[in-house]
Write a sequence for this structure.
């Protein structure tokens, strides 16, 4: 593994593979029951089946992945749908500043809309060339590589555009509202 200090955010150390972090058991699912709800302060809500999601244009990115517990992994490739594809379809109200992403295991995370809609934020269903492993978020997870990995919610089933800020699982427990690794935004001050 090459070590390029210029691409390692402050206080981080390289690991070869991501460590799996889950607040609870990996949730089970029958794909025929899959729904992704995209709603809230938007003009057009969406309620997508697995087939609907697969019909959307997909793309691949390669990004480093930074966990707030100080490990980082280089060059993970993710395949999925650009988040801004969804944003463009639902048309959030102009006052929306925050998005809440909710998962089937009860996890949730709140993300500033500017970070959420970046071109490298994906709803990913493949990781390093293969379908997501159950513990990495099967069938689909959010990946926001510009922020700490706790913002990359696994097992996603709901995206809500908020008219007032709410906090997700770790944000409620004192973690930073934004979580930019380059500014070491670990905890809320
Ligand atoms: N649904 C869900 N998503 C989650 C978590 C979780 O507990 N549940 N943990 C987060 C944390 S803290 C990290 S570091 C990453 C880890 O991703 P991995 O388990 O695929 O390595 O997932 C994030 N997404
Ligand atoms: Mo994490």
């Amino acid at each position: 593994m090459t070590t390029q200090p210029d691409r390692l955010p402050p206080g981080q150390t390289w690991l070869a593979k991501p460590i799996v972090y889950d607040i609870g058991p990996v949730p089970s699912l029958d794909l025929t029951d899959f729904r992704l709800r995209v709603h809230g302060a938007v003009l057009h809500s969406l309620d997508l089946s697995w087939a609907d999601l697969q019909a959307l244009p997909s793309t691949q990115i390669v990004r480093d992945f930074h966990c707030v517990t100080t490990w980082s992994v280089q060059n993970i490739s993710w395949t999925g749908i650009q988040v801004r594809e969804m944003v463009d379809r639902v048309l959030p109200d102009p006052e929306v500043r925050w998005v809440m992403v909710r998962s089937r295991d009860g996890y949730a995370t709140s993300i500033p809309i500017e970070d959420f809609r970046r071109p490298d934020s994906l709803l990913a269903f493949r990781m390093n060339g293969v379908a997501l492993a159950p513990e990495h978020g099967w069938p689909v997870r959010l990946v926001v590589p510009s922020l700490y990995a706790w913002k990359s919610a696994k097992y996603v089933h709901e995206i809500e555009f908020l008219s007032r800020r709410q906090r997700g699982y770790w944000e409620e427990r004192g973690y930073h509202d934004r979580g930019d690794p380059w500014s070491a935004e670990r905890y809320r001050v």
The pocket of molybdenum atom (ligand 2) is lined by residues 21, 67-69, 149-150 (CB under 6 Å). Helices lie at 50-54, 83-90, 113-116, 169-172.
